[in-house]
Write a structure and sequence with these properties.
Helix content: 25-40%
Oligomer: single chain
Shape: globular
Low-confidence stretches: none
Largest sheet: 4 strands, antiparallel
């Protein structure tokens, strides 16, 4: 499993979480998509997406779904603005 974690510092995390709730159903149409989680604290949110593999994640960053949820921008345009971490992992239980 390939996991991407995007840390976003925002003044109003609940408002940003609501935006992700509205966009989340669109993720289901993506091949290789396994799940999306949003974690919050007082100053930031972490958006965790889970994929079958790195190639599925990279295809997402070039997809229309990505562009619709990022103001028309593709992954290469958004990458400099993001605080991303990537992991290989597995769910044990």
């Amino acid at each position: 499993m390939y996991i991407a974690v995007n840390t976003i510092e925002v003044p109003d995390p609940p408002q940003m979480v609501e935006m992700f709730r509205k966009q989340a159903p669109n993720m289901k149409e993506l091949q290789g998509f396994l799940g999306l989680e949003v974690w919050t604290d007082e100053q930031a949110i972490k958006v965790i997406t889970k994929w079958e593999n790195k190639e599925a994640f990279e295809a997402y960053t070039q997809s229309e779904v990505f562009k619709r949820s990022h103001g028309g921008h593709g992954g290469q345009e958004m990458k400099p603005k993001a605080r991303l971490s990537y992991f290989e992992g597995e769910t044990l239980i």
